[in-house]
Amino acid sequence: MNVIAVDRISKRYAGHVAVEELSLAVPEGGIFGLLGPNGAGKSTTIRMILDIIIPDEGRISLFGDTKGARELSARIGFLPEERGLYPRMLVLDSLVFLGQMRGLSRADARHRANWWLEKVGIADWAKRKVQDLSKGMQQKVQLVGALLHDPDLLVLDEPFSGLDPVNTQVLQEAVLELSRKGKTILFSTHQMEQAESMCDRVVIINRGRKVVDGTVAEIKSDAGAKNVAIDFTRNRGAADPILRDRTLVARVDDVGQSIEVELAKGAQAELLLELLVKAGCGMTRFELQAPSLRAIFIDKVGPEAATAPAREEAAHV
Amino acid sequence: MSKLFAIVQREFIERVRTKAFLIGTLMGPVIFFAVGALPALMMGKPSSSQRVAVVDATADQVAPRLLDSLSRLTVGAGDSRTKRYEFIVVPAEPSRAGAVRDSIIPDVDRREPSGDVAPDALTGILIVTDTGLTAGRLVYLGQNVGSIGDIANLERTLRVSVVRERMRAMGVSESVAAAATTRVDLTTIKVTKGRLTGEDAEGAFWLSYILIIVLFIALMPTGVQVMSAVVEEKSNRILEVLVSSVRPFDLMFGKVLGVGGASLLQLGIWGASASLFGAFAGKGGGGSTDLTAAMESPQRVSVAIPSIPAELVVVTLIYFALGFLFFSTAYAAVGAMCNTVQETQQVQFPVMAMLLVGYLGAFATIGRPESTAAKVMTFLPPTAPFIVPTRWSNSPLPLPELLISIGICVLGVIGMVWLAAKIYRVGILSHGKKPSFKDLWRWVRHN
Questions:
Q1: What is residue B407's predicted lDDT score, i.e. its pLDDT?
Q2: Can you list the domains of chain A with their CATH numbers?
């Protein structure tokens, strides 16, 4: 059974289309990534899935039920991109309130909140005001708020943006632990490395439309092993004329000393290696590999979209 | 339902816990004390026993007779009861009245070397002359001329005594003079539509007056608090999480009820303290009952809270609830449209205008409950909460009129809650520029 089944949903705002005829299916268990550049419609899609806004067209069912996320909120945890708490409320009270909003009783919410605060190491702060906490601690409180009621489905919108390394670790572990327990996790991100290392399945959307859908393994094998990862140690400059040869190299994803090369159609990796060695380039790695999700992403959405800073959706909700 | 309750509970507890609430709650009684009891205390509480020298420059030495009724006044109660005035009559030749007066002035408020008032110091000097009695102009010099209560009391009693003295000079017998100068008080009783209401007119006026102010104090700041709570929540960005688990309507309504509950608690505390101070002030600020009886006491009427008929309480509560829901939800919608409290300044104008029309309209029609303006405002949801209780305090409305008014107000409230919920639903998730009327129209039609 699919935990989330989205059937051709669209959302238009005055002047632009946020999401168009998008369909996706999130199976039970595992980690599902919703990828796309900024402004692609990820947050809008998540808001529609969670019944915060209503799609103009299309249908959404959760746990095989179409009555909407709000009715099923006891089974769903949500950490939005724009995070916030009541700054003058006590930490424990805030969590109890969030738990109550997810259908827990006051006593149960209090019990669970204390357990979680202990687990994430901020039990001493339970009776302090939220505004007295550091940003990192507030992030922990928010995460606990999303997990308190032990949801079957956890939805995270850009969960890693703005997290410090410690909290990134905490969140990653929490997500993996939930996944091991058979819970379903949907998270959106524009950080491909994170998605590649964590997700079982991904959907890549761009300008409101789906461009890639499948398991990470499928997507990579479809893309073909025509990529070469190279780590240079010396004489990096000598490689440039060779890399500019369009009969050999279709595209270079250049991040300095480490590069990812997409071979041109019909070109042989061995030839490239031979030319680089002859040119006197020092290398510690020359690895024929499936393209990274990042490369596939850039391939599908184009390099300009991948870096587009446009963030229109917030103003039009 | 339990979620709505949790929202109400959170809003109420978080509000009641704040310092602002505590200070506001304590300030109420302090202000009531200041405006209610303090003037009464200042006026009603007499200085203790006073020694007054009376320079009697009349040809017939009439001063002792003038002072007769004054010297019977007492101050204090029980064992501590003493004469209010001790008079020392100083006879003087009419031509030498000024000189005699000047010779006594040093004794007024005379101090010991230690700075304490000397035990035999004078409080003041009263100068009685024949021309003064004829012209009705006596002179009093004293340390206590700033005490309105002291002077009013002295003047009032002297006035009667002087009239009696004039009558005696014209040969009227003492018993006739006493009978002729008996005080006259006007008791006012209101008649409505050919029936006695049993209320006195002045009481009804004050009741209306107080009702309007209390309604305004209850409605306006509460609405503004709902508005700023919504703006605050918007800027906290906590709404997305909440809206994914509760309906925006519950969120708005829970907020309105929570803030309203806290306001009611505060008003209740104010009301209780006001009636306590009112009762206290009504007793003449602790002065003796004899004294209170001896004084005509206009100030007592102004601070005493008139008795309130039970139906008026019921009608006021019904209209308070209707007005509260109407204005608070309107304010919630205003909050949802804005990103900062500053922005609300302009946007809240229409709501504020509706409130002020009701408030000022009620004052304007306070003595004219049957005027066309009052009747029209009875049937408008924003003004009825002010007008109907005010009209009712004059005279009960006919039942059909009341029911139609309540019906229209209920419809108005439903309409406003519906409109506000639509605006709120979209507004709370919108950041960025303030919505135009076109945007609002889109929000309202939206779903």
A1: 95
A2: 2-220 (3.40.50.300), 225-289 (3.30.70.100)
